[in-house]
Design goal:
There is one protein chain. By secondary structure, the chain is mainly β. Helix content is about 0%, strand content about 45%. The protein is globular and about 40 Å long.
């Protein structure tokens, strides 16, 4: 089992940047594939980015390609989401999640979720 805690959210102007972190407990973090999802107010949860356990596969949603970068540090049990050139439409609660499944873009395949961190981008 793994517990996830996100941090790094906040209020930023359009064009700005934030880096989200997700700290995981447990000795098996390096075995999990990790994902970032977001949920705008009143909308369904959306896939943002994911990274395989070994960093070998990093899919992104089309809406964030070229602006967001996912990475992980297995020694620190942490996954990151660097978000650049932020837009008002990036405003959402951002969640990290863990899975052993290979279907990295599907939220239903993730077993463990953090509590979320709010990102608000002002225009």
């Amino acid at each position: 089992q793994v517990q996830l805690v996100e941090s790094g959210g906040g209020l930023v102007q359009a064009g700005g940047y934030l880096r989200l972190s997700c700290a995981a407990s447990g000795r098996t973090f390096s075995s999990y594939n990790m994902g970032w999802f977001r949920q705008p107010q009143g909308k369904e949860r959306q896939f943002v980015a994911a990274i395989a356990w070994n960093g070998g596969n990093t899919p992104y949603a089309d809406s964030v390609k070229g602006r967001f970068t996912i990475s992980r540090d297995n020694a620190k049990n942490t996954v990151y989401l660097q978000m650049n050139s932020l837009k008002p439409e990036d405003t959402a609660v951002y969640y990290c999640a863990a899975t052993f499944d290979y279907r990295l873009t599907m939220p239903s395949k993730y077993n463990y979720w953090g509590q979320g961190t709010q990102v608000t981008v002002s225009s």
